[in-house]
Design a protein that fits this description.
Elements lengths: L1 H14 L11 E8 L5 E10 L2 E5 L5 E6 L4 E6 L4 E6 H27 L3 H11 L10 E12 L2 E10 L2 E9 L6 H17 L4 H9 L5 E7 L4 E9 L14 E2 L11
Helix pairs in contact: 1-5, 2-4, 4-5
């Protein structure tokens, strides 16, 4: 369950970059993700209606639904034909527990590092990565001005920064009009996620994306991961698309969340 949440927040941080207007008939789009070597990992499918969002994962084994209107999230397992339902309050309880554990580990690591000789401490920091033990800096977005044609859209380059360090490159277009409504919906969810787990990259990215002027067509992360929109179209989407499918069995939440006790 926790793995699903972590994977989804990572996906959300990228999929937020596809924010578009809440058309009366809704919106459907597809995107591809590629790793450092450029190898593709399949196509993910997304559906949007005002206050409702759904992403079908690349392997088509599952999906995640966000219902801002109900303040809940559904995690679907298509292979097992099951689903889990979690309110934002229950998610907050779980995420704060994870955050608290991580902070305790970081404090213990800092104590142990402080007691080490300088050379040994430097070696451990290099092996583990300083980002695991340092406080994350504020995320900002800077317009770079460079332009490029991506997926037949004229895009402008933006840089997402953490302090002075580049975190991601975002290519956004103004060829797709009126995208603000969905952007605002997903920014709202991003802010809620950020309060659940303060300092996390995904939550700060969600808030920073609001500063991008246009429809972000591609996001390039510094770890080599790239997400690119390949197709987007207005589509009439029934509310049933944002609910658990008929015949799916509801599973209990993990122990530690309000609904899992």
């Amino acid at each position: 369950m926790k793995r699903n949440i972590v994977l989804f927040t990572g996906a959300l941080a990228l999929m937020i970059c596809l924010s578009v207007q809440a058309f009366a008939n809704g919106l459907y789009w597809e995107s591809t993700r590629a790793g450092r070597e450029g190898k593709g990992n399949g196509v993910s499918k997304s559906y949007y209606m005002p206050r409702m969002y759904k992403i079908v994962m690349e392997d088509n084994k599952g999906a995640v639904i966000i219902r801002l209107d109900k303040e809940e999230m559904l995690m679907l397992n298509h292979k097992k034909k099951t689903y889990q339902e979690m309110t934002f309050n229950e998610m907050e309880t779980m995420m704060k527990g994870v955050s608290s554990q991580m902070q305790e580990v970081a404090k213990q690591m800092e104590k142990e590092l402080a007691a080490m000789p300088a050379e040994q401490r430097k070696m451990v920091e290099q092996m583990m990565g300083k980002n695991l033990i340092k406080k994350q800096e504020e995320k900002t977005v800077v317009k770079a001005g460079e332009t490029k044609n991506i997926s037949n859209y004229a895009c402008t380059k933006y840089i997402l920064k953490e302090g002075d360090k580049d975190v991601a490159t975002i290519w956004a277009t103004k060829d797709i009009d009126d995208f603000k409504a969905m952007q605002q919906d997903m920014e709202e969810f991003g802010k809620r996620m950020a309060t659940m787990m303060p300092g996390n990259l995904e939550g700060q990215m969600d808030r920073s994306i609001a500063l991008v002027d246009g429809f972000p067509v591609r996001t390039e992360m510094t770890d080599g991961t790239t997400m690119t929109v390949t197709n987007a179209e207005k589509r009439s989407i029934p509310v049933s698309e944002f609910e658990a499918p008929s015949g799916y069995k509801k599973e209990k939440l993990p122990v530690g969340t309000k609904g899992g006790n």
